[in-house]
Amino acid sequence: MRIAVIGGTGLIGTRVVARLESDGHDVVVASRATGVNSYTGEGLEQALAGAHALVDVSNSDSLDEAAASEFFYGSTLNLLTYGAAAGVAHHVALSVVGTDRLARSEGGYFAAKAAQERLIRESRRPYSIVHATQFFEFIANIADAGTNREVVRLSRALFQPMAADDVAAAVAVTAAGPPLGRVVEFAGPERFRLEELVRRQLRLRHDLRDVVVDPLARYFGTDLDEHELLPGPDATIAPTRYDDWFATGGRPYEPATRHPLRS
User: TM spans, by residue (predicted)?
Assistant: First the structure.
């Protein structure tokens, strides 16, 4: 099967490409690094030619609602339009568990993601939307975002993070299957408080920043309800536990521009 991976050189994209190729698929790696720009449309016609499925793991460079909305609207509309012209039979997009709830209560980046999902649902194109929880690789970014004068202030919200490899496996399996026409959720096997796992990771990496619970702390500009980051009861649970990920060499993701949700 020929599958085009948009954002195929990022944290999740490279893993999706590797997984699909190991399963015998013909994969097109599409990103700005390979001359394909989903926002401007540059290179899309060639990248999608003959593709059965399109996997979108690209992301906005900004958390600002206006900038993120502009990116997701332009990029997703291009992918749907070019995909329809190329006869793509399955549009797969990666999004975030809790997007719908956070979009309603807080707006911001999550409103932009919710708008992206709406475009896909209303396009009448065959699709699947994969909702994943936060990645182990981004726990350091959560700490950095909550840091002020060497003190990390975090909400007591619960979350159920997962390894990037497990996210990529979920996306790849979904892409190789039939269009589901709905959202499917994936989450890690363990539930933590934000401050609990951030503190654990900082100590494992000999980072002495103090981690405190602050009821006024925001999560990348968002106020969190205790359960807003958690998956629903029907979520598929990934196998990798945090300690196993760390023990086998797990490392934080450090792109040129750090982004807490970047794929």
Answer: none
**What whole-number distance in Å separates Cα of residue 45 and Cα of residue 169?**
26
Q: Give the whole-angstrom CA distance, residue 131 versus residue 137.
A: 17
Nearest residue to 140 via CA among 254, 244, 219, 263: 254
Q: Does residue 259 form part of some domain?
A: no
Tally the domains of the chain: 1
Residue-level pLDDT at 65:
87
Q: Are 56 and 79 in contact (CB under 8 A)?
A: yes
The CATH number of residue 190's host domain is 3.40.50.720
pTM score, whole prediction: 0.91
- Contact (CB, 8 A) for 103 and 110: yes
> Residue 126 CA to chain centroid, in angstroms?
20
Overall average pLDDT of the 139-156 stretch = 90
